[in-house]
Each structure stands twice: as C-alpha cells, then as structure tokens.
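Sorry to interrupt, but I need a hand with the structure work. Go ahead and set the record down below:
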Amino acid sequence: MNASGSPLTIPKTAELRRIQLRSRRLVTGDLMGQYRSAFRGTGLVFTDIREYQPGDDVKHIHWKATARTGKVFVKSYEEDRQLRVLVAVDMSASMRALDQRSGYAKALEFVATIGALAQRGNDLIGLSLFAEKPLTYLHPKSGAKRTQQILASLMNEQGEYLNTDLAAALQDISLTLRKPSIIFVLSDFLCPPFETELRTLSTIHDVVLVQIESPLKQGESLGLVTFTDAETGEQVVVDTSSQMVREKWSEALEAQRLRLRDTAQSCRADHIVISDSVIRPLVRLMRERTRRIAR
C-alpha cells in the first residue's frame, strides 16, 4: 500500500542528466573492481592457434590449419570478460505512486548505477519493463547510447498499470533472452507467486532480486495517513504515530523480506533490499559474491 498523494512526476531531460552524472560519480575505481570480481563472463573467446602440446584437449584441434601445414595445431581461448546485463523493472502502480522518494525513483537510480558500471566495463546492457504484462524490451547492447535509451524508456513510460504479473515477466525473459546473462529484477514484489518461473530463469541466467522499498514502507511516524492500495484502490486510515502500528508494520515488512530471501535462495538467485542507499546493498552483494567465488 502507498500513502495517498500526487503521482510521481516523471523526470525529463534535466533529471536524466542529473541521474547520469550522479551515477558516474558513484562508480569509483574501487566499485568497478568489486563489480568485476563479483560478476564474471560466461564463456570463452577464440583468440589464436598454436602447435599441439602433450596434454592438450583433442577437441580443440584446428583441423584446417593441421591439414594445411601437416602439423597439429590447437585453438587458444581466453575468458570472455564482457558481461551481458538485463535490468527488469516493475512499472505497476505500487512502484510509481507517491513522490520523488518513491520506489520508482530508487529503481531509476539503481538502473543508472548499473548502466554506468556496464558502460565503463564495455558490457552489454538491456531493459525489460513489466507490470500486469510484459511491456518494453531492449536487447542488451554496449555503449553510452544504450544506457541513455534505457533511462529514457524508464522515464517516458506513461501507461497506468494496476497489477504486477512477475511470473509472466520472468517467463517472457526466459523465452526472449537466450544467452546467459546477469538479470536484475527491480520490484516491490507485491504480486502473486513466481517461484517456478524464477527457478527456470535461474538455470541459465544469474538472477538478482532487487526489492525496492520507499521510505513510507519503513514505518516512519507521519500521524494519521490515508493509505491507498495502488493496485486495487482500497483505502484505509492508519495512525502511524502509534508505536504498536509501527511495530506491526515493521514485523510485516521483515516477514516479506525473509520470504523473498528464502524464495531467492531456493531458486539459486540473490536478493538485496533497497530502502535508502542504492550503493550500500549493491556493495554488500558484490563482496558476498566475491567471497563465494573465492571459496
């Protein structure tokens, strides 16, 4: 549920520049290093051929060069360090209500940060927008232009979508995105179950569930507030100054986080929560992934 108020004013060109400049400043050399350590390429790239040496795998023999020269040559490979990244963003009403502090604004900032990391690493980045059905899809490409297109698509999406069908969105991505990729799914996850589709997606791709929480979802005291369920229209008046109300609110919020974390773990995906800072949860995730890789 979201507090009633003005709908989010979608930022335009000036706001796009501000978000991009801020995200570029955040992408320090240290953060870039952690990004490279935590997320790895998914394959090998053919680089050259060399003469066969005892112990080389025969499946790497370059038969044309061998036949042409009369000597046995094998193919040399290097790890493909270029990443393929997709950001999938929930565009439903519960993400886009409120004001500039809303979950949608946090999603924009997160996507801009990932875009800046991908651009600096010369990685491919794409976009999937979804709500009650799959919406915009941009295939992963490299370059500053692609990052600008992604942010512009996020800012310019004006449809009014009440519900979230994350299961349909994940299934659509599974059918569309064939090559192994890193997928960041940004949502408040106020939706029907999607575990089966997440498990299928995670068998090929590296999936991170990014749970977005706006400040008003953290149980702050605002007195009497009318909350409207952005996806059903139902309204209720809540006394947020009541300690009991705030405690119950916090308990419900923590329970949702734990459920989503357990779902992610059971499907071999990662899970982070963004409620204020975009960078801190991302850094914690990258450090944890680096430790896992090193084991």
About this structure: The longest strand covers residues 43-51.
